[in-house]
Amino acid sequence: MSTAGVRRGATGFTLLGxxxxxxxxxxxxxxxxxxxxxxxxxxxxxxxxxxxxxxxLAIGIAALCSGVYLWLRDEKxxxxxxxxxxxxxxxxxIVLLTGPLWGKIAWGTYWNWEPRLTLTLLLWFVLVGYFMVxxxxxxxxxxxxxxxVVAIVGAIDIPFIHLSxxxxxxxxxxxxxxxxxxxxxxxxxxxxLMVGLGVFTLLFFGLFLFRYALEGLRSEADLxxxxxxx
Amino acid sequence: MSAYFRQVCAIVKKDVLLExxxxxxxxxxxxxxxxxxxxxxxxxxxxxxxxxxVAAGLIWMTLxxxxxxxxxxxxxxxxxxxxxxxxxxxPVPKDAIFLAKVIANFTLLYAVSLLVLGVFALFFSxxxxxxxxxxxxxxxxxxxxxxxxxxxxxxxxTGTTMxxxxxxxxxxxxxxxxxxFGVGSTGRLMNGRPFDEVEGNVRMLGAFAFAAVAAGxxxxxxxxxx
Amino acid sequence: xxxxxxxxxxxxxxxxxxESPTLEAIDxxxxxxxxxxVDGVDLSLDTGEFLTIFGPNGAGKTxxxxxxxxxxxxxxxxxxxxxxxxxxxxxxxxxxxxxLSHRGFLYARLTAEENxxxxxxxxxxxxxxxxxxxxxxxxxxxxxxxxxxxxxSHGMRQRLSLARALLHDPDVVFLDEPYTGLxxxxxxxLRGVLNELKDGRRTVVMVTHNLTEGLQMATRVAIQVGxxxxxxxxxxxxxxxxxERQYHAVVEARS
Lengths: 230, 226, 255
Fold this sequence. Notes:
Chain A has 230 residues and is mainly alpha-helical. Chain A has helices at residues 3-31, 45-72, 75-106, 115-134, 140-168, 187-229.
């Protein structure tokens, strides 16, 4: 796909995502009914959960692209991995900011070693490590390889971390959607959540493609800058 | 296959021989372990906490910090006089180099972990007698998983401009499962609980170690190529 | 100054023209981010040839050697040994290659004999004890076999390192600044052993600053500046006395 094509796609996804975001905010502030036990603060759920979903989607994409990058050594795959990791870092940060806001009211403390929040925190650190390694080598190509290894090992480790933190302790609201006997969430809440998941995924891909196009332009510029000197 | 085995053996033998000759890492790690035990003793207020209750956690933390101290140096030792370049340009598959490094580092760390166990049992009067064999198995699985991750990322951080300071940042988030399952199982066994209760943890620890070794063996080649 | 074509056949070529060269590099490029260390080097050497590469610091000589020896992945281009492309994930071709660097690749706390044994095991060699004894003899270190490397002088280490590089009897030998830090007598010993390498069975590539030593050994000479071979000639056509002046003229014209 050409850079122009990527940019068109990016614009499309992002505009759709932003429009959806307005819709999601309207739904979560005005349309959906207030949850009985937790009150108004539970509405943060419609941002918190989709952001978490997106951050894990992002590390998955980053690890996948990294793996194929190590195999084929196509710069495009490395660029895609960075963009996904960056998106993951942004959305994981959203989770880590919205979680304590919700937690302060729902649990009475800002931080709590709740498994899924802990998992997101560790994912956040893995992603930070990804960028630290990338920028800590003199040879950029080496940084790309190292970062790819971090992303892959991180993605493999996440199920283990998930199991271990659940085993360690759980205070979090029980899963409300992905349960064997069907979702227990009331219809309007489920609908809002689903819209949230869709909107955040769209936004993620929009931002991802924008970043990807930008990286493409940057590497073209690098190439052009190199030509006359050599 | 036998050529592969011979190459792995040669590297392990070389590493062990170097360690026996210099005793650099084992001395540093052993001293660290004992001194950590001494400091932990003063960090626990015995009027509010029974040392026995937190001993398992302290043992694992000592292992992790002591392990980073030793394993983090593994490629620095190789880098002197460029020797590792010689190994990398020999016909040894990169996964064989990784496995050999893991075996050598594991031997070192496991020796230290048994020392830690003994010292902490003495310092905090732990009653580990009845469950000792299982505790030793758990420490072995934990050390193996740790060594696999630490060896892979020691190679990464040695290759960066930040050097060893980067190693904890990369490894600590990944070590959470090992700490949770390791501390959970050793803690209970030290309190005289039966093995059945912690069997699941030990299985998870084994799976973690296996995954770490396998991932390292596959990915190591991408870290050391230049 | 007469830059010759990269594929110019060597004057001492006795092989049939259809046979592939022992060492071949095709348009090798290595970039380190924005820096281009090696910028399109072509190379073709037959058995028995000894190529010396001169060049100022930062000319990309070590990067080139790294790619030829399979230690560094080329950004673009390809290296072939006896017609087969080398691959960083394959290992068999590596036993055809020996590397001697100014760094010894030796373990200071192992004895001379143990160092050679270690590398011998890595290369899967048979009759190791005999082979080690023979090689130690050849570099004049038979009486130092049980000395730890840290107890040896720099010159002895360099000779031991030479034994290490040749232990598996490689077809292709790479020498990276082998004369660095050697006193005249050690350099003389090294020259003696390197001369033995010109036994017609091997292909040698040497990178060095030492014009005198480099020129004595070579059957072909190249000058690398800015990542490229800017000058290449058969040694038989070179005026040894005037070479130093010529070298500086070439380097200054290109940098």
